[in-house]
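Predict the 3D structure for this chain.
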Amino acid sequence: MTLRVVGAGVGRTGTNSQKLALEHLLGGTCHHMFEVKTPEHMAGWEAAAKGTMPDWHSFLADYTALVDWPGASFWPELSEAFPDALVLLSVREGESWYNSAIETIFKEEDDDDETSEAFESMWEAIRAHRFPVDVRDKAATIAAMEAHNAAVIAAIPPERLLVWPTGSGWEPICEALDLPVPDIPFPHKNTKKEFLAKEG
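Done. Predicted structure below.
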């Protein structure tokens, strides 16, 4: 199994909906933060954030696509490791994105079980090395997100890149992958309300 899609969009840009859509289209599991479940997997991402890259083909052998953090932070390495994969950049208006992110994925949590400690250590490493900004600074955080997007657009050839504004639905993804558009609604999951309900 190999990645057919490398998602470069940061979290809270419709990535869970993309995950479900890509699983429907490609018939395999799409890696997302939800897939980071074991301390070993968390340690692998943390080591990558600190500069020790895994064998990506082995590390992601169970997946046909990848979206969301932590993987989106490694779009340069992953797009190189999987040269035939589509690079999917999900984008969202800065103010809307920040307001969602600061109340969900950037929210401070107090949890001391072993898995949560490993997760927090991984997430802190990703933030420190791959998205180094004080997320309490709204303007700087939006600027960092926009710089991330600009770097992807500058580096990836247009014929390999799909810029997908949140809410764009099936058509652009299906066209880029040369697949038929499903006769079902595009998934719309993990809204801020749903995220907070799960956390509570």
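The chain has one domain: 5-199.
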